[in-house]
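A quick aside before the break. I want you to see a complete sequence-to-structure record at least once, exactly as it would be stored in a machine-readable document. Don't worry about memorizing anything.
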Amino acid sequence: MKLRTCLAASALALAAGAAGAGEIAVIVKTTNSNFWQNVNLGAQAAMEGNSEHTLSFDGPAAESAVADQVSMVENAINRGVAGLVLAPSDPEALVPVVQRAYESGIPVVIIDSMLGEGAEGSYQAFLSTDNCAAGQQVAQRMIEEAGTTGKVAIMSYVAGVGSEIGRVGCFTEHLQENSELEIVGPLYSQSQMANALNQTTDILASNPDLVGIFGANEPTAVGMGRAIVQAGKAGQLVALGFDGNEDLQQFVRDGVLTATAVQGSFAMGEMGVQAVLDILAGETVEPFINTGVVLVDAENIDSDEAQNVLY
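That is the input. The structure line, written in tokens, reads:
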């Protein structure tokens, strides 16, 4: 509640006219991911018919390249963008530049991952999957499919990132509170598919009695799925993923993944840019906007609900 209170108290109408026509910069964790490219498509959709502003989209080569992302935000501030949509790769490292953007009169909307302490009041809205609720939802599906005893491995991505703290933390807590499942890990792939593949291969080899495994973001889940296939373990344990690119969709269709939790990535980009446009127009925006998650499995993958979030 502290986040929402601080945000609500911030200057939501920050300099409605401080930045008129100009560039809206969307800076994500990495451009080398279908998830973030789908965010870009949503951002472009929000700009359709808008002749007053232009859109730029950027991000580092890898989510772990935090210093590169900080530099991109600094460059955006220096060139005087009209607004900023940011998915912070590190909850602490991005705080000073977001504060600088605010002090420069640039509206900032944060998407996907929360910023750390000290950032409150320096951005106008936070758009995200409710990652804690999503983690609980995936954990409940794990219990329903795998039972309440045995080992479950957690293949995570970058330790300490806001989305990871909620997603993996609440997944873990739900398992611990509602089952006797033993947790192996978490292991951190640094959002690198090859790392996740190697880590999962090792986990499967050293824990042949696993009943379940959870890959907590797109590159991690893809690497996990490939390792399961290579180990000949498809269908032999409950494998749950997160995000919904073509690889993960095929894993669901092939029975490699029991299900994957898919965020509204397109909506995140579209609603994030729209929030900036609204702020620039002097309108009030909600301090927190939940972009939702759909648990996609073989039974619902062709439904409208699933197809609207898959990418």
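Two observations worth writing down. The chain has two domains: 2-128+264-292, 131-262. The chain has a mean pLDDT of 92. We'll return to this after the break.
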